[in-house]
Amino acid sequence: MPPDVLKVAVIEDDDEDFVLVSEALKAAQRTRFEIVHAAGLAQGRLALLDDSYDVFLVDYFLDENSADSLISEARRLSHPSPLVVLTGADSRDLDDRLIEMGAADFLPKRELAPALLERTIRHAVDRKQSENQMARLVKQDALTGLGNRQLFEENVERAISRARRHNGSFAIIFLDLDRFKEVNDTLGHHVGDLLLILVADRLQRATRDSDFVARISGDEFTLLLDDIRETGDAEIIAEKLLDTLRSPTPIHDVTLNITASLGVACFPEHGDTPMELMQKADMALYESKRAGSGRYRFFSQEMQARLERNIDMEQGLRHALDAGELSLHFQPIWRLSDRRTVAAEALLRWRHPAGYMVSPAEFIPVAERTGLILPVGNWVLDEACRFLRRLDDAGHSRLDLAINVSPRQLGPHTFTETVERHLAAHGVEASRLELELTEETFIETGDEMKSLLTDFRKLGCSIAIDDFGTGYSSLRYLKHFPVHRLKIDKSFISGDGADVAEPAITQAIVNLAKSLGLTLVAEGVETPQQADFLLAEGCQFGQGFLVAPPMEADEFIQFLQNQHRDGPP
Ligand code: C2E
Ligand code: MG
Ligand code: MG
């Protein structure tokens, strides 16, 4: 039941009509109407941004325009109060259209009998209330009682309209609990659920009534901080949120110490649609997580530039394969003792249609994130096998070729078969192909790795650990996994000077490889001093600019030809 006092905005540009409507409202029997006059479209729009009205009474013809735009605006804002339209002409077409557009009801102006007007308004308010209630249930997160993503978006939409009118600003925050999965996995979903409820409660206590908190998925919460004048204000709130969440959290018989990560985006600096703002807060959250747990980050121009580059790159990369923009370059791996080439590493290159080369260090992460690494990786595999065939035909049948394999490629269990198929298609022996995997691959894929590596060994391929020393060096896998070769990361070898950048680490890795019976390749050998040091320590192989950079296929074969002719230096 609607209350007995209703605040009504009468949006009417004709003063005489306004008086008529007011009289009818004042004559109502059960309801006392608090009447506010909005004398045109512009004022009507302002009134729509005010949540204190219970109902809007709108003249259909306003300032020589129709009220269509106003009705659509109310719908776009999901306004919680109904709009009743006063029509002049009684055309059925118009009536139907009004309802379709979102008006709650309509009344021909000449039927403005007080009783009918009052009843129409009360019905409209009543209906809208149950509609809202239903909508709230649909838009509510059942676990925490907070709003869900849809409701959050609607609130942001309204905050945008409000802020535009008043030249205001606000902030939205994406918040994600750190290591929530661990809580769920170790203590059970029940505890996980209780934790989420507690967090929801703390977030609501830490914010003002005019702010809005939602849970948009698993352990991801969003906050709308209304009327934030300066970045400093949002910073203070972000700190406060991190603080409240940090205090010890007793659940049942355990006390959890949780932290959260936050990403912040502001209107109008960072975007002017809910989607854009949410995307940017999410991106800031991602960056904040990457920097470690328990922090917040504001969206920045730098992130923006990275975002754009990544989107561009993703789109470009999708075409690169079909457009033939990818190629393999080959870099010799040589014996340190006589600098003779014994193998090569295939390194992917992308010539962007704009003419410049994109570094694999830049596009491989994008390919991994988007899943494009699977087709790209298969292409590399095929191209490498084709090149091995070509080496055979050119009389270099003892040269091995290494390719880089990303962890994502190992996910599908068919990878060994894929390798086998490509080798067979080009008629090359498996023993000629080496797979370079980084240390992270071993950490990420854990024990499954062992069976996969065993499969590769059965097939006849050898395995090298790339960039050795930069990962989380769990030496366990070195001992237990069938690995053949380590590649010392180039950051330990080359630096500013001619000498070895990290001699102590290099020595330690050489000794480790010796004791495990693994062969060793030093990457990034740029100077004779580095080569001499490595040789003296007992490292067998090198790769680096000292002998040759990565080269195109033809150039590489020419290089081998020359080396053959000239003999060792
Ligand atoms: P990586 O496998 O460690 O490759 C060695 C990198 O060191 C190459 O960079 C190579 O050009 C560079 N390099 C060679 N000699 C020297 C030297 O003397 N000094 C210095 N400072 N650098 C040297 P590149 O070609 O830019 O490749 C970067 C990374 O991208 C590779 O590191 C590898 O992790 C990844 N990558 C390249 N091709 C592929 C591929 O086909 N698939 C996958 N998944 N990753 C690839
Ligand atoms: Mg490599
Ligand atoms: Mg490397």
Keywords:
single chain; 569 residues; alpha/beta; Alpha-Beta Plaits; 3 domains; eight-stranded mixed beta barrel; five-stranded parallel β-sheet
Quick recap:
The chain is α/β, with parallel strands linked by helices. Helices cover 48% and strands 21% of the residues. The strands form 5 sheets. It has an 8-stranded mixed β-barrel with strand order 15-16-18-19-20-21-22-23, surrounded by 6 helices. A 5-stranded parallel sheet has the order 2-1-3-6-7, with helices on both faces.
Describe, in plain words, how this protein is organized in 3D.
- The protein is of the alpha/beta class.
- It has three domains: 5-138, Response regulator (Rossmann fold), CATH 3.40.50; 149-299, Alpha-Beta Plaits; 308-566, EAL domain (TIM Barrel).
- Helices cover 48% and strands 21% of the residues.
- The chain has 22 helices and 23 strands.
- Strands 15-16-18-19-20-21-22-23 form an eight-stranded mixed β-barrel, surrounded by six helices. The chain has a five-stranded parallel beta sheet with strand order 2-1-3-6-7, with helices on both faces.
- Strand 13 (260-267), helix 10 (274-290) and strand 14 (296-298) form a beta-alpha-beta unit.
- The chain starts with a strand and ends with a helix.
- The mean pLDDT is 90.
- It binds ligand C2E and magnesium ion (2 copies).
- One magnesium ion (MG) is lined by residues 345, 404, 436, 466.
